[in-house]
Amino acid sequence: MDVYGELIFNQNQHNELERLNHITTAFDSITKEHITQLNLPSNSRCLDIGSGTGSIASWLSVHSQQRNFEVMALDRDGQFLPKQASAHNNFTVLKSDISKAHSLGEFDLIHARLVLIHLRDRSEVLEKLVSWLKPGGWIILSEFIDTSTTKPRPSAYSKTMKTMWEVLYKTIGTDCNWGNSLPDNFNALGLKKLGNSLHYPPLSSGSPISAFWCLTWMQMKHHLLTTGGLHIDTYTQAIHNLNAGKVADLSPGLITCWGQR
Questions:
Q1: Is the pLDDT of residue 64 over 90?
Q2: Are the C-beta atoms of residues 182 and 143 closer than 8 Å to each other?
């Protein structure tokens, strides 16, 4: 069974760090704003899941120095994390697959961005994460939500985006519709003080999210053209239009939901 980071998006690929840095630039300010508004207490234990480049875990470590936060970054690969962790005495790295991880204790904050959407057992993982919250602890999750694939007149961009989601579903189990269910799932799990927001980054020439999608599709080219059956001309046009700022579509947005145990 293939999972994220093995068949697709392996951290050893030459442009994976660049790709992750673009998504960090596109969304970190939104994530930081949402975490800040939770007003976490001093001495909080924080768990950042699927940390990638470690930007959010590192920010939590610095942001919380006067409040003595303990920050743990969990990632199934973790290749990009040790350098970040070495700069902070309250930042530890755990190389683990969240689907297989056992209890790590209780946390005041659990954060994951663009992680559970790629897991086949996402519902079970969500229940596990909620069980790891301290009473009064917060969970904040962000996932993609896509409306570009429903256009009545599909563009090269929307055809390529739709094919990408289909390929990811076939290969690793990604469900691009799961983010829509986060508010209901949080409510069903008994979380309180629920909130959610939606952010659409601009698909302009040179924007971080445009660069992210270009690199994503470049990594997936073989899968898009073979597994997905996308025509090479459509693929080439989509990449060109993104780079040139000629896409009249929305990028998948970032839906963020939070709740307190």
A1: no
A2: yes
Rounded Cα distance between 238 and 83, Å, is 36
User: Other C-beta atoms within 10 Å of 150: how many?
Assistant: 9
- Flag whether pLDDT at 242 surpasses 80: yes
Taking phi first (over 0 means left), then psi (-120 to 50 degrees means alpha), and beta for anything else, what does residue 86 get?
alpha
How distant, in Å, are the alpha carbons of 111, 230, 233 from that of 84? 18, 39, 41
User: Helix (H) and strand (E) counts for the chain?
Assistant: 9, 7
Question: Using an 8 Å Cβ cutoff, are 54 and 73 in contact?
Answer: yes
Q: Which of 233, 230, 98 is nearest to 165 (CA)?
A: 230
User: What token pair was written down for 240?
Assistant: 């060109």
H helices of 172-207, in order, are 182-188
Overall average pLDDT of the 201-214 stretch: 94
